[in-house]
Amino acid sequence: MSQAGTTASSSGGDLPARADVVVVGAGITGASVAHHLARRGVSVVVIEQSPRSGAGATGRSGGMVRAFDPDTAIAELALPSLAAYRDAGRWASGQAPLHAVGAVTAADRAQESAFREAAGQINGALRTSAHVVAEREEAAGVRLAGGVALVEPEAGWVAPAEVTADWLVQARADGAVVRHGVRVLEVEERGGRPAVLTDAGVISAGAVVAAVGPWAADPVRGLRPASPVRSRSIQVSIVERRPPAPPHATFVDLRTGLYAKPVGTDRTLIGMPHLVWDAPFDAQPDPAHAQATVSALTAHFPWLTTAAHLSTVRATDAYGPPGGGGPAAGLLEGTGVPHVWSVRGWNGGGVKTAPEAGRRIAEACVADAFCEAA
Ligand SMILES: Cc1cc2nc3c(=O)[nH]c(=O)nc-3n(C[C@H](O)[C@H](O)[C@H](O)COP(=O)(O)OP(=O)(O)OC[C@H]3O[C@@H](n4cnc5c(N)ncnc54)[C@H](O)[C@@H]3O)c2cc1C
Fold first, then answer.
1. Ligand 1 near 327 CB (within 6 A)
2. Which of 237, 258, 231 is nearest to 317 (CA)?
3. Is 222 in the pocket of ligand 1 (CB under 6 A)?
4. Is residue 57 classed as helix, strand or coil in its secondary structure?
5. 99-156+230-319: CATH architecture
6. What's the average model confidence in pLDDT over 280-309?
7. Ranges for the FAD dependent oxidoreductase domain (predicted)?
8. Is the CB of 213 inside a 6 Å radius of any atom of ligand 1?
């Protein structure tokens, strides 16, 4: 693979004139892809429109991570991703980013045997102590409200912006060029390869990986994935958790979609599906939904009835059908422009899947040579 050139482009200062791969978007997905590509010797340029990383869904995310997911395609990514988040050796900081507060997944009693099977698989792969709790009112500080629970004591949450920053540090150390405050305006074909038109100049690329998150629903020309992607609202609130409220694990209830995670020692993040489609990324918080979220979660955290509400954050993520047919086992989707690929599969779970998704995309890029130098 070639090294990223450093020839100045028309108005771009030190924006490279060419690269094997241009990654558009420095959220957690783009950062993972860039890190894994650069580690394999691919010349990478990352273009991010915001002056800082984590400006999109990544910066507002709760960052809950666990190995289990009812969607087997996601679980297949989530399990090795949890292993990566637990492994201090993979991080520039020298510290594993995982806060292992535990993870509780609640479901209808009919899921008990599926949970037991999943616990066995998780423990076999990760040497953990995942187990099923049935016939009990509570698990790891969470009232189960009649269901069964899969408890993963070694799972928990990560800070998505910190993970993103760490991967970008590693990518830079491996030769990648990361540019913030540069917006991709369009990607077009020139001589069979992509030309990335930005507001700071043009980059000739062997391939382009668009990791633009919710912006994939309404992307710039040349980055539109073949399958439809829609943005959907995600809203979370932070509430105060004072004694005697107990500490608790992260929590997802598959029956309702309700979720929660501890934030430090005295706060909790709570959320409930907010089924508002095609919402702008910066839509205002919905107070009625915030109130309904507290009410619904009181069944699991009775102390919420008197907890002080501190803040509400609203954002969106990109939702679409599972990938199929594209490279990297369907994680990439064609865009109609040769060698320009859109990353698939955020659907509200991009943090729990990012380590393995980025690794697979980079592996496929190198093995299949679909991102060779321009
Ligand atoms: C409130 C909330 C809570 C969440 N909680 C969880 C959770 O607990 N666990 C979990 O696994 N997932 C969670 N998610 C989902 C997860 O955060 C997302 O799936 C993930 O962050 C998506 O990352 P991304 O890199 O694909 O997108 P983004 O983080 O949105 O990054 C895309 C980047 O592309 C840039 N960009 C877009 N267009 C251009 C352009 N034309 N030129 C240059 N740059 C461009 C944007 O500025 C942005 O920085 C949550 C999401 C939200 C919003």
1. no
2. 231
3. no
4. helix
5. 2-Layer Sandwich (3.30)
6. 97
7. 20-363
8. yes
Q: Is 326 in the pocket of ligand 1 (CB under 6 A)?
A: no
Q: Decide: 192 and 181 in contact? Cβ < 8 Å.
A: no
Residue-wise pLDDT for 318-342, tens only, equals 998 876 667 888 899 999 999 999 9
pLDDT at 104 over 60: yes
**Tokens 């980055």 map to which residue?**
223
For the chain, give every domain's residue range.
18-59+161-229+321-368, 99-156+230-319
Secondary structure class of 351 (helix, strand, coil): helix
Architecture in CATH of 18-59+161-229+321-368: 3-Layer(bba) Sandwich (3.50)
Strand partners, 262: 268
Q: How sure is the predictor about 8, in pLDDT bands with cuts at 50, 70 and 90?
A: very low
Mind listing the pLDDT tens digit for each residue in 158-167?
999 999 999 9
From ligand 1's centre to the CA of 211, what distance in Å?
Answer: 9
Q: 128: CA distance to ligand 1 center in Å?
A: 29
pLDDT value, residue 372: 63
CA of 319 to the centre of ligand 1 (A): 11
Whole-angstrom distance, CA of residue 199 vs CA of residue 184: 7
d(CA 50, ligand 1 centre) in Å: 13
- How confident is the model at residue 326, as a pLDDT? 78
